[in-house]
Amino acid sequence: MTGIRADLVRGGTSRGVFVHLDDLPTGRAERDRLVLALLGTPDPMQVDGLGGGHSSTSKLVAVRASTAPGADLDYLFLQVGIDEPVVDDSGNCGNLSYAVGPWGIERGLAAPGAVRLRNLNTGRILVSTARPGPGPGPYPTGTSVDVDHLDPAGADGRHALPTGSAVDHWRWRRGTLPVTVADVTSPVLMVRAEDLGRTGHESRAALAADTELLADLERVRAELAAELGHTGPGGPSRAVPRIAILAGPRSSDRDVETRSVSLQRVHHAVPGTSAMCVAAASRIAGTVACDVAGGVTGPGPATVRVGHLRGVLEVRTDAHGAAAGRRIGSVGVTGTARTLLTGTAQVPHGEERP
């Protein structure tokens, strides 16, 4: 067995293992072997590790004090497969980003106050600010945190619409499917629920049972991942782009309704990066999100309310320029985070794995 300092931490509606980046091996293959063993992958239940058998709980964040100008902390996010031995570092995690600043302060890696985070997956800067009072969302305990993503478009080196179009028509069954691919904090494939013959207000169980639909959407998603260059040794990334199925709201407390698919599983709420991407896309004329949400007219700051299976996430957006080609200056969200468990994780060596 190998011991490694590790904490179990909740951020927003996700939970992950937090470690010191300097404690991970520098070589990718060795790093991935350790991470898979730490989370208990591959195993649908991840019984022999710290994963939780769901895409929202099969995650790892590695943090260190930053030496880069304008940053206090560096962090690397790893999305870990569950029943397949996959470690994906192609995107960020919006929910666990709530926890990076508070965790870094707790561990003495950053001073209290506004903490500037450099996400090593995307190279982007986030500003994390803890604030008093109970937090929003389904898990109000812990520290309430504002996280603002600066200049968040084009995390993969392109712009907010990486295909160059507000809408693309993709091969779909016997015809084509209008989709928007946007990249604001992370790439997301957006599609209207009505174009799938669905309402967009289905329960998680009903959508998860629609295996034919999910398989068809995964084919489109994988083809787009390959076209956009999100590939690795095993082929197209399984983590990005994520899928957002969009519909108009049925209540006045939201602007758009979303059902999210991550790692080929229906999300129990919404990935934070997906919500921010949908909100930003709703401010760009011609996109699926803008059409469904009715658009947020005019440049400058505006809050877009993204509905999901667990409630509503309010996303702060700041857009500049004409509606058809807006630059997204920033997006921000508020959530909560808390450390659940601290200690030393015992990681089996390769020969000890079943």
Architecture overview:
With 354 residues, this protein is of the alpha+beta class. It has 6 helices and 19 strands. The strands form 2 sheets. Strands 1-2-3-4-6-7-8-19 form an 8-stranded mixed β-barrel. The chain starts with a strand and ends in a 7-residue tail after the last strand. The mean pLDDT is 92.
Question: Which secondary structure elements does this structure contain, and how are they paired or packed?
Answer:
Elements: E1 2-11, E2 14-20, H1 28-39, E3 59-65, E4 73-80, E5 87-88, H2 94-106, E6 115-119, E7 125-131, E8 143-150, E9 168-172, E10 175-183, E11 187-192, H3 204-208, H4 211-227, E12 231-232, E13 235-236, E14 242-247, E15 256-262, E16 265-266, H5 272-281, H6 288-293, E17 300-308, E18 311-320, E19 327-347
